[in-house]
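[step 3/7] fold_predict: job queued, chain A
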Amino acid sequence: MISKQQCWHPSRAAALAQLEQFVANAGSRYASQRNFDHGQSRHYSVSTLSPWIRHRSITEEEVIAAVLKQHSRTAADKFIQEVFWRTYWKGWLEARPQVWHNYRADVSAFYRESPETIRQCDAATSAGTGIECFDTWCKELVATGYLHNHARMWFASIWIFTLQLPWQMGADFFLRHLLDGDPASNTLSWRWVAGLHTTGKTYLARPENIEKYTGGRFSPTGQLSSTAHALTETPIGDKTELPVSSEITPDKTTGLLITEDDLCIDHLLKEAASHKLNVASVATLQTTALRSPAAVSDNATNFVQQLMKDCTTTQFNVRIDAAIDAISINSSKTPVAQVVNWASKNNLQQVVTAYAPTGPTAELIADIKLALNRQDVQLLSSVRQWDEKIWPHSSRGFFALKKKIPQLLDQLYPTQTSAIQQSLPF
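[step 4/7] structure written:
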């Protein structure tokens, strides 16, 4: 048994506690047991850290640092690779944002123009397909906001190749419900199953594989497609330049903008200290509702909302003397105008935020930046060192990045005695 944590309390303290509980098992036991899905509330074979890492309540860098305190790189190699996969997906999509834009356009078109497709998708997600494993995973995802990674792969394969439903709508279902719903990991993983990420290479769910790795709970023999024909798509165009951190001007009246993509505030506090910024106010910006044209689950919405509240009440309030304004997205609010009004009310000259990777937050930030510029207020983004170092190696297949992991670990962790920042007062 690797982990007893089956409840994702929306706080950094809970994330650190789960990391501490899991880390002893991040070596050979994780490598040998990680593919087993024991069922709802029994995800003992994996870390279950992803809902917090996705929102950077804890960061990838400090998770690996904690692992390297107890394990050699060789012993923890499989777990380290899985953490790097998350960053790989983000870096790959950063270089090809058109993939995200195409996905968004496709989803919107289905909702707008294809009521029969939506009806079929709703029927599938209502757990009425008769495929016991698939229906069980539907119920678990809706109830908990989580699925084991292996179950996500099986689910996507059944959705695409057995039920023959659009991969985009399966990805949308996941993104609306997952606590760790991540634009890059989710979109690109679905494309990978469909044979689009690695051209022609599909992932086919097999009954014997499901039976083995669910401990015999399911045996969908005769129910699943035995063939998987790769899908096709229009060319996605040339790669774009990767982002770099903005030049931050010292001594200006500054607002810090906290988004749900990065809730570990040490990064922005270091920027504020190193540039001697006069931080007048802090705003939080929740964008969960922008994941889909359809309603996003209460599980996902409330989890992020409480994580952001935890960020301000247990992190900022004890570390910085500035007003805090919460700005959230719902049908009755205009977030761009809210941010502009916040900047005006606090006489801000610049707004500094952690860089938001390709996704709904980044789209909104682009609109906010234009609106602030019209008021002669700069919006500046700071890219974390972790992303700066890894994203340039993520533009091809994962195995190109995998070869670079030892070198990247040398750069990020000069010694294996690196530790997470236990001195933080929360």
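[step 5/7] annotate
The two ends are 29 Å apart (CA to CA).
DSSP finds 19 helices and five strands in the chain.
exit 0
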